[in-house]
Amino acid sequence: MNDHVKAQLMDAADLERTLNRMARQIVEHVTPDTPAHDEDEAYALVGMQTRGVQLARRLRAKVQDAEGIEVPVGVLDVTMYRDDVRLREHQPTVRATDIPFDVTGRHLVLVDDVLYTGRTGRAALEALMARGRPASVRFLVIVDRGHRELPIYADIVGREVPTLPDEEVRVCVSEMDDREGVWLVSTGD
Which of these CATH numbers, 2.30.29.30, 3.40.190.150, 3.40.50.2020, 3.90.870.10, describes 9-32+40-85+93-164? Predict the structure, then answer.
């Protein structure tokens, strides 16, 4: 693949500020009528493989530091719920799903790095519903790049970035990548 960086959309400091704001939004807006510190752990974060997991863990730490609230985090792989899994030339890698709590009756915040067509979000909802019936599901993404094919939208968005079809938005986190930030990349020739 012949990738070309077109722009840096966020540096490490921008990403940190964005996550701080999103952590406040989780506390203030996700479950305003249900105290998050109840014994029932009224809400939880679910990070989508791969970078959504790291982002969910960071958000958990920020909520705990700011509010003293311990929010459980689950890990979700949606590979087998995607509508294109049988259409791919190569079999995709299936990663671990680990949701160590009952999703039924819980307010969930689904965390991903980039929202594009909405197909991954749809697959995530299907995967969650296969595990139970949440009280609510909110969707949080660092970047919404547009080009929706399904009516799936994020409730909490770090930044909206209009893109062209031959562009990608790459979110890099230090836990997985050699750098930290968000880049707009051209994938065409």
Answer: 3.40.50.2020
